[in-house]
Amino acid sequence: MKKKREGKTTSKIFDDHDHGMCFDDAIEQIENYFLKKNLQFTPLRRKVFEILIRDHKPLGAYEILEALGRDGFSSSPPIAYRVLDFLMEHGFVHKIQGLNAFIACSNPNHSHSPAFVICRKCEKVAEVDEKKSGISFASANIENFEVEKTTVEMTGVCTTCSRAATI
Amino acid sequence: MKKKREGKTTSKIFDDHDHGMCFDDAIEQIENYFLKKNLQFTPLRRKVFEILIRDHKPLGAYEILEALGRDGFSSSPPIAYRVLDFLMEHGFVHKIQGLNAFIACSNPNHSHSPAFVICRKCEKVAEVDEKKSGISFASANIENFEVEKTTVEMTGVCTTCSRAATI
DNA sequence: CATAACATGTTATAACATAACACTATTAGT
DNA sequence: ACTAATAGTGTTATGTTATAACATGTTATG
User: Fold this and answer.
1) Do B148 and A156 touch (CB under 8 A)?
2) Are the C-beta atoms of residues A64 and A102 closer than 8 Å to each other?
3) How far apart (Å, rounded) are the C-alpha atoms in residues B42 and B22?
4) B94 beta carbon < 7 A from strand C?
5) Which domains, and CATH codes, for chain A?
6) Residue B13 and residue B132 in contact, taking contact as beta carbons nearer than 8 Å
7) pLDDT tens-digit readout, A112-147
């Protein structure tokens, strides 16, 4: 049931991933990871991850809480933040700083230096890796400083949105 | 009254800028810029910029508000946020997303793609430019996407802090 | 000097996040 | 299987960051 990846007119970076497959794969992948690492993939954690990956768009913590509530889970803030922290630690969720929002990781090999492309109009977000984006962190080990984590977010307008209206 | 830039043992990126000069220069520079652009460098705006540049470290909006209050200015939140937005629009202040804090720009030519190096221990922040950092945004114009703004933050531990204690 | 545009002041509230503690479920050691 | 330890979830309260909406003052321009 693969979707075609070519022939689209919309911004490629937002579309060149097969979400149907992504969803199924991602669930399987996270299950395996947790199994292997002897971590509990509890109903709550599964649900949070599913909420994030089913739309595959950035969601605020409180949006996630609402979704949890609708699905019969507790929906007080710490619930979401704790699970999100946990999933982020293990690289299955990233935080988009510029949006105060969270998004499921779309990188099968869990790059720990993700970069995000964010359309400020439709708020779609694409996760790109160094090579695709043309960004190079290759030599980003600053002199006398040990970089542990990088945040890279590129905000702008995607083709679809810029076509739809002239700013 | 220039300070020496060489011979220090601490992390260079945090120290290789002459802050005494930076302060005076920065004020002069912002004055000139505002004059040239016919913008008002009002007492409030000046004060906010001074607060930020005198310590040259990231300050939260509410810290800035406290400082404003101490100096006899109004200190309700919108005051700070409005001025900060204004100063950011013109490139004299940047927001450090990872800290929810604001910092005076230390780049005399107002690069609009600043990158920040943040020590998570001492919370010192250094603004670096592409060449120094080894990061390359040269080709970061993503296919079918117009990048307007980039956020780049590298978090880690500076030499001074990593020397002080083993994590 | 009127008036439009800009700047600041103020109140209230929205949006985002965590502390602290209680309780439950799972795991590991005996 | 029992129990102690650890991990996970639930709940209340509160802390922190940011903005909406509207009032007032100030400056530039015809």
Assistant:
1) yes
2) yes
3) 21
4) no
5) 12-164 (1.10.10.10)
6) yes
7) 778 899 999 888 999 987 665 556 654 455 677 888
